[in-house]
Design goal:
With 141 residues, the chain is an alpha+beta fold. It has one domain. Helix content is 39%, strand content 26%. The strands form two sheets. It has a five-stranded mixed β-sheet, with helices on one face. The chain has a two-stranded antiparallel ribbon with strand order 1-2. Strand 4 (53-59) and strand 5 form a beta hairpin. The longest helix has 23 residues, at 94-116. The two termini are 24 Å apart.
Length: 141
Amino acid sequence: MSDTSDTSDAAPGGDPRATEEVLAARAALADAVDAALRAAGLPVLREEFGDSGVQVWVDAKADALGGVYARWKISAEMNQAVIACVRERRMDDPLIRRRGEVGAAMNEAVLRVLVASGFGADHFADDFVSPCVRLTAGPPR
């Protein structure tokens, strides 16, 4: 079994960073994900900030959370409206539920597009990562 960590550099948060070889493979997988989603007509974001669309990113950690992920990012308008609901303590506002349902529906669509394109992927969420799609394998060559 090969070591996937590089202790000379740390990922954000101070966690051990994956080796350059592992990071290069993840970057190639992220590029393939980007291409498949764009081919399906979906807008793709490779940075955290930007318009709505599918956000694709590489987590540089060497642990089990490291890898390639994708998630639907709602519009800035919807996000600001939800933030206003929370600030005003309107937790029963239907917009909050709709935001969650839209995110879940779009993440499901992203998952289906990627699986149809030959990728290994599954739904993922934990205490540190909000619901998203985790890529487990690229399409067969």
